[in-house]
């Protein structure tokens, strides 16, 4: 549904703002999923403007998706077919993206026991084709993500997968039509390294996407610099990733999640890690500063104190719409404190722990999206031991005492191409940030001008006017 969104212009507003504590309401989407849900992903699978859910299960080895009705309810899950050579055995990861550029989001999944990578093509009518094998022989196929890592001018999506048993991270360059090139190696470490978690982002802000990897086997967190923006592909068509000189972190017990995010709101990506079995002296949750000093960067750890020691899924996003990113962590065990967050402050610091839920343990995976179209990010999570999938709806309110001189309206929202601003009587500077907190647009706008967002990827973005006013919009 298109809507106009009221903003309060920073040039024309004197305000005193205080943040209400972040609060959520738990809603169980499926209380009896196929056995042992391991991964969750979100995207609009039906092109109706609502963000849907999909899960991958470990023991039952199936992918199930849930249509979002947009009114705080979801339809009964539909399980997709994966048989024969495209069968899945013990799914560890799924992701959603439009792999064949037909305007419909497809689903990718990995089978960790049979080393398969498959995709389910979205027909665009709320049905999917049976699974098609992209590749086999990915030894211990685990975490999977998609991105344009070779800076393809057509923005074709490539696939990156961890191969736990072969101690490597591999990738497949996309052709834009649902087909992919041969398996290539992004990173290869020594025996027993065991890569399990990774993320993709432009860490050094040089125009290409770097990769951070969490190695469960040896406890290391390592960063790899993508050189394609400077050097292009090598003679064999490979994207060259160069390991940073210094290891980001070491001696972790069982790394669960490693992600990029702007934790301290300085416009640079940091690295966040959660550890499910921290060794003596190591924290459950920590993030590492971005010194922006090139491949020889030395990483400084900032420990985040938690009430439980078994870190699970971790995310960073602005839950209370105050312009600062918050840190969310799930418990990989069951302890009575299972989902917590740390509110981000404009100073770059985090609040003490806030308990969001104490009834949903073994949160192996989570994903953030606005499921009920109220311009606030909600949290979708699976519970491995309870066999359920849950959405925690965001009830946080922003308490503001203000002297309003002029109202500004932002529309249309969601949008495909342009954003318009109604009610301005001064020129402004507009900044747009993705869910990682990375600035993707910054430009001045005169009265009557529109903001071109057509080149942005699909998703939810934060918009600031004059670095003060904050709102969300959806790029569809």
From TrEMBL:
<protein>
    <submittedName>
        <fullName>Por secretion system C-terminal sorting domain-containing protein</fullName>
    </submittedName>
</protein>
<dbReference type="Pfam" id="PF13517">
    <property type="entry name" value="FG-GAP_3"/>
</dbReference>
<dbReference type="Pfam" id="PF18962">
    <property type="entry name" value="Por_Secre_tail"/>
</dbReference>
<dbReference type="InterPro" id="IPR013517">
    <property type="entry name" value="FG-GAP"/>
</dbReference>
<dbReference type="InterPro" id="IPR028994">
    <property type="entry name" value="Integrin_alpha_N"/>
</dbReference>
<keyword id="KW-0732">Signal</keyword>
<feature type="domain" description="Secretion system C-terminal sorting">
    <location>
        <begin position="410"/>
        <end position="472"/>
    </location>
</feature>
<dbReference type="InterPro" id="IPR026444">
    <property type="entry name" value="Secre_tail"/>
</dbReference>
<feature type="signal peptide">
    <location>
        <begin position="1"/>
        <end position="20"/>
    </location>
</feature>
């Amino acid at each position: 549904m298109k809507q106009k969104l009221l903003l309060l212009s920073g040039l024309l507003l004197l305000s005193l703002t205080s943040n209400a504590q972040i609060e959520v309401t738990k809603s169980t989407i499926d209380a009896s999923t196929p056995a042992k849900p391991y991964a969750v992903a979100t995207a609009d699978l039906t092109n109706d403007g609502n963000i849907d859910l999909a899960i991958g299960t470990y023991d039952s080895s199936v992918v199930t998706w849930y249509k979002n009705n947009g009114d705080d309810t979801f339809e009964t899950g539909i399980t997709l077919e994966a048989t024969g050579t495209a069968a899945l055995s013990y799914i560890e990861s799924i992701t959603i993206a439009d792999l064949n550029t037909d305007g419909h989001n497809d689903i990718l999944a990995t089978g960790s026991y049979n080393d398969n990578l498959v995709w389910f093509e979205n027909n665009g009518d709320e049905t999917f084709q049976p699974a098609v094998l992209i590749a086999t022989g990915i030894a211990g196929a685990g975490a999977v993500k998609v991105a344009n890592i070779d800076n393809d001018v057509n923005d074709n999506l490539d696939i990156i997968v961890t191969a736990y048993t072969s101690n490597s991270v591999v990738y497949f360059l996309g052709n834009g039509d649902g087909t992919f090139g041969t398996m290539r190696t992004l990173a290869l470490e020594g025996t027993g390294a065991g890569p399990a978690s990774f993320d993709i982002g432009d860490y050094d802000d040089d125009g290409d996407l770097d990769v951070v990897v969490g190695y469960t086997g040896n406890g290391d967190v390592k960063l790899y610099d993508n050189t394609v923006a400077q050097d292009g592909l090598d003679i064999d068509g490979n994207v060259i990733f160069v390991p940073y000189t210094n290891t980001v972190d070491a001696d972790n017990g069982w790394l669960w999640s490693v992600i990029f995010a702007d934790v301290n709101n300085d416009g640079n990506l940091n690295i966040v890690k959660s550890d499910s079995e921290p060794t003596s002296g190591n924290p459950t949750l920590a993030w590492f500063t971005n010194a922006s000093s090139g491949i020889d960067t030395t990483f400084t750890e900032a420990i985040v104190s938690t009430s439980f020691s078994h870190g699970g899924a971790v995310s960073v996003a602005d839950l209370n719409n105050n312009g600062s990113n918050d840190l969310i962590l799930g418990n990989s065990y069951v302890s009575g404190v299972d989902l917590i967050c740390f509110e981000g402050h404009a100073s770059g610091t985090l609040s003490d722990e806030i308990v969001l839920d104490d009834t949903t343990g073994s949160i192996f995976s989570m994903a953030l999206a606005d499921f009920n179209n109220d311009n606030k990010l909600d949290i979708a999570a699976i519970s491995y031991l309870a066999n359920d999938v849950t959405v925690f709806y965001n009830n946080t309110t922003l308490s503001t005492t203000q002297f309003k001189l002029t109202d500004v309206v932002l529309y249309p929202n969601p949008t495909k191409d342009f954003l318009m601003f109604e009610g301005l009587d001064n020129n402004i500077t507009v900044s747009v940030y993705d869910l990682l907190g990375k600035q993707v647009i910054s430009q001045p706008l005169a009265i009557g001008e529109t903001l071109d967002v057509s080149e942005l990827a699909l998703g939810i973005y934060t918009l600031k006017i004059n670095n003060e006013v904050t709102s969300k919009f959806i790029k569809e």
